[in-house]
Amino acid sequence: MSAVLHLAIPAGDLSKTVKFYTEVLGCKLGNREEGRWVDVNFWGNELTLHQSEEQLPSVRHDVDMGAVLVPHFGIHLTQDDFDAVKDRIAAAGLTYLDDPYRRFKGDDYEQETFFIADPNNNVLEIKTMKNPEVLWPDN
């Protein structure tokens, strides 16, 4: 395995946050130290959730679609996986921080994106690209 992103974040109540990543987002769990941290398979990347007391502050930064929360992290999904995550969010009765929105309409970079927070208020951006091959064209 190579070129796998590893990100460790504060999870607050670990059991509550694990439930969000597994039941709402559909991620699988990996290695863990019970009650302290757990690795999540975040679509092939290693996201480590740490039991914590703290939450990261977020601020809004202006972009074409409005003011987005920073810091945030996320994932690019296929349209089918993106739609499945939206369905699980709806089934869980959760609300978006920023509703699904189509950006760059008619452009090579056209995408649908939304922002949601996990139970510890870590902000996630989930998106699907109309033409994913244009994201990192060969130089």
Walk me through this protein's architecture:
By secondary structure, the chain is of the alpha+beta class. The protein has a single domain, classed as 2,3-Dihydroxybiphenyl 1,2-Dioxygenase, domain 1. The chain is built from two helices and ten strands. The chain has a four-stranded mixed sheet. A four-stranded mixed sheet has the order 7-10-9-8. The longest helix is centred in the middle third of the chain and has 13 residues.
Summarize the structure.
The protein is of the alpha+beta class.
Fill in the keyword field for this structure:
139 residues, alpha+beta, 2,3-Dihydroxybiphenyl 1,2-Dioxygenase, domain 1, four-stranded mixed beta sheet, 2 helices, globular
Instruction: Summarize model confidence as the mean pLDDT.
Output: 93
Helix content: 10-25%
Strand portion, in percent? 35-45%
Question: What would you give as the CATH superfamily?
Answer: 2,3-Dihydroxybiphenyl 1,2-Dioxygenase, domain 1
Tally of distinct domains: 1
Unreliable segments of 5+ consecutive residues: none
Distance between the termini: 24 Å
Task: Specify the overall morphology.
Answer: globular
Topology as a string of helices (H) and strands (E): EHEEEEEEHEEE
Under the CATH scheme, which architecture would be assigned? Roll
Radius of gyration: 15 Å
**CATH level-3 fold name:** 2,3-Dihydroxybiphenyl 1,2-Dioxygenase, domain 1
CATH class categorisation: Alpha Beta
The chain-level structural class is alpha+beta
- Number of alpha- plus pi-helical segments: 2
